[in-house]
Design a protein that fits this description.
Four copies of one chain form a homotetramer.
Chain A lengths: L7 E6 L7 H14 L3 E5 L2 H7 L2 E4 L26 H14 L3 E6 L1 H14 L3 E5 L15 H22 L2 E6 L6 H9 L4 E3 L7 H9 L9 E6 L7 H11 L5 E5 L11 H19 L5 E6 L2 E6 H4 L8 H10 L2
Parallel strand pairs in A: 1-2, 1-4, 4-5, 5-10, 6-8, 6-9, 7-8
Antiparallel strand pairs in A: 2-3, 10-11
């Protein structure tokens, strides 16, 4: 793979951080070096690109980071990059460093920015899906989703201990933006009595029916997992409404929050990040551009940004069906 | 240790659950059997005592529970037990089962109830301190505190990953009721920039000074750990007030909540619970009553309920001093 | 799904235990009940079947087990079941309880036994792949593999801490019988310098070359992950041979052993086990028999025992290629 | 605390690494800077001291390390330092950097070296006890012991899952050199049937009696925890001898090994390390030298090296008594 036109590759992380981003950075850097290219890290995403905050990365500089949460390149959101002037500034900084190709690790907001940059300046670019939300079409899994779901499940397990000891009803809110992936899978794995997700229209009345079904059901401990994108209210709101309708339950709420974004990545996220990092660089060298690299049915695939941005990664209906059977 | 007057010991958990309660139950049961006594589990604390929900426990029935969070005997708060009639009903149920001594595992609310029962009916009783709050005088450590603090620290570690990636300011609220123990120690261990606890009067202005000290300090990521008993506002309120005073920070809040109550206990809590469980039964057999068993400077001690109820377990001033030195 | 011929389903675990087996048992029991069948648990696999150690399971009896390692039904290997007399005894016990269909959770040894029972007595049976080894064709993943690989990676992470502090060379042996799955994926995720698996013929000389390549390489810390099925020697043997050839390295060995079999299952294994448990019962009710249920490209599939027993689940060559690029 | 004679403090780690060493380094550095001293890190213990491998450390250079296992200063054993010539070379390197006081983090081997250096060259030095073995008199706890014991317990919990599923007898060997601390406490916390430690002379016959007591005892799963310093043989040897005497048991062995040295430290080890780090620097500034700083009954204490080296940290007899009561 001796693409002579590309000598220097820039890599950066953008948008919300996700466990496994460091494993992806490591893979991009080492693959670049493996193919005798130089690799540069751009700090704080588009912000650092505009400010020219760019550092050279060697094989050793990404040693001992595969197991770390967060991103050593840091990440930020940049308003200025949404303007043509901002992107021009960024491009000039890339040129100054001699960077002639880009690998971005982030979510669909990040891809949109990169799409413009590619169109406007013709610089080859490949994106790696890094977000805990698993909300990107074009890949079965995004980097960080496996870890975040396990983090949610570990928290649910702890809450179950106390719920069972007190016969309490818990509403647990998990992340995922507009996607129900984390909620559905942490809900099944956590043995939730109900799972509330944006993709499915469970009415508040359905929830009340479910909770009050069966003689003495209020005496049991129950966990309800609520996706943050829920259309019928978040965990706090739902708990309040249930409490108003019935003084029968001892109700508590936990909003898991940002701890879902951190932590040492699982093997799955590390291996996924490693594979996608290798494939991103090899894609660049083979002439891919304006694409996201993903994994479908265990195979590497490249999809155009157009086919990904603003499309929905649909939830697996079979999972929803199973959740209902098993919560009897 | 052949106290012939005591043949049957009742054990129960009461108040908020804490990791290690099962290890304490196991120790009480096995020590009772070791001294050839019968042991009975009373379900859901004083509620089960009043309802007569009592089961015999054998050495095997507490097998494979030492590692489990929560309490197999469940716990509850009972209004009825606060009345003399309620306590009479409870006492009659104990008599019916032939239970002639009690071991309670819980916090100071639970001890108060037991104190009345002992006074009114003369039944020997020893308490074991089981609460994550470490808010009991008469013992260096309560069962569950070590585990809860580690749970808080693990969550803080995860949040640090994302804080560092985004240069964010996080307010993290931890449990502890009116005690700052979990906050101080998870704050030191989590490398917090500031720790807000009920025992110390840091004003909101002090906090603002600390946050804005030094050129460019707003660019750093920072973690502030807030005890739920904070007198200057909880994490959510403090974050709001800081945001109002300065648009300089990217601020997020996480209220860890009930996940701090669950989880598999640490070795420390299991060993502590084992020692206190053995000592509670041996105390009963040696004639101790109306006391809490505790550990002070690695030695078993018995203190009267009177000396414990409504007294404060003071925070270690040295820890506060150290927290300040290390957050520079 | 109203298969009137099947009224009682027996479920058991067999062979080596794997994390997630309890989640599979729970799914089988609840799905059976959902379709208004009775479900019975057969203790200790074929051993309990021969001894008639069979218990009725209700929806509640599998509550609070989804998060537990091991198997509540226990498991064993049975010599007697390999004889026709043994199997007849087992079948008669099933008949006595009115059990007219079987779901087995285990590895390919277990399937062989079931295959004979089905052939000889015509009792419908479906297998669920439960083994940490991921060595079964007919499914992308077996229950327990995800958890075991994460357990291995967590151990490797801990060993890396001490390896880096001392500039040591560690040989770490992981499980997997004749399969290199755990080794390859924990090796990539653990950032191993080399991965020795049964499927690939790396000679001892290749290993020496790799270890001694580059000036001063002996000064670096390095981790070598060795699958227990390695054809050039296990971790202990390889370490000894390297030490004999060079006094240059500070070498240590860790054989992870049976801790890889236990622990609370990951979300992935719990969801996988839940899906396969539902699909096994639904398969039985739709007339499937003599098959293993699996998951291929995220879809449920049924494959005949014949197509599975004694076939090899091939290792992903792409993973091996990536491991080499990233260990530079 | 304005000791004008001391301007530059050197800090290093020595001997086996232990979780929490980084927290101690951080505390030494930040406390030094707090008192307006300069702090230098000496790499790889006495080896780096002899080679002059010394780096300046600032408050930020120890940021984000409190949670990391291992030691950023690395550690090694040095033969040369045992000679007077070696120590002279080391001292000259310290002088060259203007280092006029030392803080060492390590075990008693490390203290011996420092004792000579102080005697020979008069350089003030304080030691911090950092070893997982908890084998130092003069402190209730050494840094790393709490984490290592929890690591051992987590491994034992996993092994219990598989032991219970198979009714197996497991011999689990834990670290501790000549000390039984990790074994006793992980054994109690892990619910072990027996605990074999160097301090107590349980004969092999006693062990056989214990294992074979009671009808059908061989059918139960059992865990035996063996300290590596066991006088009647390690786990592998004991398992072999038991197997020879009885074909009744299904026996397995796990030697936990070096994973006990790594991992993120618990809150306890981080707080302990922070307190000892602060106290070491403050001790130095107050004129302490040739001492180890420790914690006794929650208070900071300084003890001369003489009183520590070659003395034994005795095991708590009460713990042994409790282990026996609870394993019935």
């Amino acid at each position: 793979m001796t693409n002579e036109k590309i000598k220097r590759i820039g890599v950066f992380t953008s948008g919300g951080d996700a466990p496994g981003m460091n494993a992806a950075i490591r893979a991009v850097v080492r693959t670049g070096i493996y193919y005798q290219k130089e690799v540069f890290g751009i700090m704080r995403g588009y912000e650092g690109m505009i400010e020219g905050d760019i550092v050279k990365l060697g094989a050793r500089s990404v040693g001992n980071i595969i197991q770390r949460g967060g991103t050593i390149l840091k990440t930020a959101r940049s308003k200025e990059f949404r303007t043509k002037e901002g992107r021009l500034k960024a491009y000039n900084n890339l040129k100054k460093e001699g960077i002639d190709a880009l690998v971005a690790i982030g979510g669909d907001g990040s891809f949109t920015g990169l799409h413009y940059l590619t169109e406007e300046f013709g610089i080859p670019a490949v994106c790696i899906p890094g977000t805990i939300d698993n909300d990107l079409t074009g890949t079965d899994y995004t980097i960080g989703y496996d870890t975040a779901t396990n983090t949610a499940v570990e928290a649910i397990d702890k809450i179950r201990d106390t719920a069972l000891s007190h016969n309490r009803l818990f509403f647990i809110e998990v992340m995922g933006r507009n996607s129900g992936y984390i909620a559905v899978n942490s809900g099944i794995a956590g043995g939730a009595a109900a799972i509330i997700i944006p993709e499915e229209t469970m009415s508040f009345e359905n929830l009340m029916t479910l909770l009050t079904a069966g003689e003495g059901s209020s005496k049991k401990s129950n966990l309800i997992v609520v996706a943050e994108g829920s259309k019928i209210g978040g965990a706090t709101e739902l708990a309040k409404k249930v409490a108003e309708r019935s003084d029968y339950f001892d109700i508590k709420v936990t909003v898991l929050g940002h701890l879902q974004r951190g932590g040492s990545p699982t093997y799955f996220d590390r291996v996924l990040a490693s594979k996608l990092g290798v494939a991103a660089v090899e894609g660049i060298l083979k002439g891919q551009t304006d694409v996201m690299v993903g994994i479908r049915n265990s195979k590497i695939v490249y999809n155009s940004f157009d086919s990904i941005i603003n499309h929905v990664h649909e939830i697996d209906q079979e999972s929803l069906r199973i959740a209902k059977i098993l919560s009897i």
